[in-house]
Amino acid sequence: MDAGVKTGAVGIVLAGAYGHGRSHLENLRGLTARGLAELVGVCDVREVDAEWLHGLGAPEQARPEGLADLIERTGAEITILCTPINTHADLAVTALRAGSHLLLEKPPASSLAEFERIAAAVRETGLACQIGFQSLGSAAIPALRKLIASGELGEIRGIGVAGAWERPADYFTRSAWSGRRRLDDGQDVVDGALTNPFAHATATALAVAGAEERGSVTSVELELFHANPIEADDTAAARIHLADGQVITVAVTLCATGRTEPYVLVHGSRATARLTYTTDDLDGTVHPRANLLENLIEHVRTGAELLVPAARTGAFMEFLEAVRLAPDPLPISDDHQTVHADRRELPGIRGLTDLSAERLALFSELGAPWAAASDPSTAQGAAHG
């Protein structure tokens, strides 16, 4: 074995154990059992129950302000950062400067400027920063790109994305930042359907288009709405114009009935291709997906290529910046909703998201009555990335 290659379990700190952080604990259990990882520290505003840490030893615990000291005391080589979006930049820079590689949950930051702070810290420290867009670890994406490059689909005329989920009312009150565009102190959060629950949708479409790095997005048309009494969008459509002339549309909602799997639809002059990115299914063939933490461990141990380095999410951050700078979402009146005791539903919304992906159209162009007054070129503005 190469003398420069380390062996043994990699020490890991998890910052943010609640909410989505629980899925990281589950992943860590599997990697720990295989001898690849050791959870040496947990960082959260609340103490984590011992039963949550079953199978993970007795990691040291600390509050977020003690993250740097925790990393230094434990010698953690990797930090998983799964905290509120508005804290990502400060904690990411703290972890990197404390000497730890990083697995940073999506979205990477709440603004393009904060993303650049993280990127600068990566360059300054020479450490790795893997972004937690799990779908970008799927072999389905290179398979689809190969299909596009082969010419089998013909000339590509656009990519459409559709996503329709339901979320209960308490989803938007689960934390102080849920459903917010910015906090009371002015901190950006940008926790809308486009940029958080369906962030993978746009990131996957950009990857399929081969447009992932900064400079890929030239302008974005946006139609942002909310049926729930929140600041951010729970229903939205976007048309992303890319530097190479390609166009991506994204139509998503959290006000559907039930859940269907979101997908990316590539339109060619000869044929279409459909990627259901949550299941890695490309036109009926399910492709394998890499574990991003395991890939980061391999990168730290052997120098294996990082699957989702920060640079690969630059175009997504240009898109997020357009959403951040757009006028606030427009409310959808109760007349256009079915208001349940525990949630709100927009009748016909799933069909509208499908039609958007099929026609590469925005909601206002499809005749949605609650979107009729929306003008993506003025009311929601074309924002530059």
UniProtKB/TrEMBL annotation:
Keyword annotations: Oxidoreductase
Protein name as annotated: Oxidoreductase
Keyword Transport among UniProt keywords: no
Gene Ontology MF annotations: nucleotide binding; oxidoreductase activity
UniProt signal peptide: none
PANTHER family per UniProt: BCDNA.GH03377 (PTHR43818)
Source organism (scientific name): Planobispora siamensis
Domain of life of the source: Bacteria
Domain Gfo/Idh/MocA-like oxidoreductase N-terminal, chain residue ranges per copy: 12-133
Domain GFO/IDH/MocA-like oxidoreductase residue range list: 143-273
Pfam family, one: GFO_IDH_MocA
